[in-house]
Amino acid sequence: xIKLIASDIDGTLVADGESRLNPEYYDVILALRKKxxxxxxxxxxxxxxxxxxxxxxxxxxxxxxxNGSYVGxxxxxxxxxxxxxxxxxxxxxxxxxxxxxxxxxxxxxxxYVETQNEELIDWMVNGYKFRVKRVDDLTKIGDQITKxxxxxxxxxxxxxxxxxxxxxSRLKIAMAGEMWMDCVAQGVNxxxxxxxxxxxxxxxxxETMAFGD
Length: 213
Description:
Elements: E1 4-8, H1 24-34, E2 38-42, H2 47-53, E3 62-65, E4 70-73, E5 76-80, H3 85-96, E6 102-106, E7 111-113, H4 118-127, E8 132-134, E9 147-151, H5 156-167, E10 171-176, E11 180-185, H6 190-201, E12 208-211
Parallel strand pairs: 1-2, 1-12, 2-3, 7-8
Antiparallel strand pairs: 3-4, 4-5, 6-7, 6-9, 9-11, 10-11
């Protein structure tokens, strides 16, 4: 019997970057809940963005956000897998020295940026519905760091390629389309986040379904 369904968001439930979900999904998830089946949304997005998408049923689902480095539900941070602090700070410094990219640092509850690129901030806040704080120095934020992303409006793989080569033995690095390169702690991914949720709910792999693009 299936007890847990996990689904990717961008490219699966919505087009990349969309902030509206087909409301029919709400009814489907509520019907699943009545049958004792849990639902988890797995995404590279911040949990606040996931919560906004599922607003009418936000108390009925789990969030597997920041590429699996955060597992939570409405009002509760359940499991957080941060990047080791000194490694995170060195990565930020190296990204800062790389021409043409912007840096976004995720903590459990906020995205932090140094950028003066108002268009990027507006897209993050009003497009993705992220909770964003602008700071003077990303290496000085007093928060756990769950994900560090390099952003470029196109060609991020070429611009940030040397960073990927330098850090891929110490971090889990994924290219998300033409604009984002996401870095999380080694061993962290959506699959491991699903495993963490399975173990906490006593759900077996054979009792789980997953959907993605």
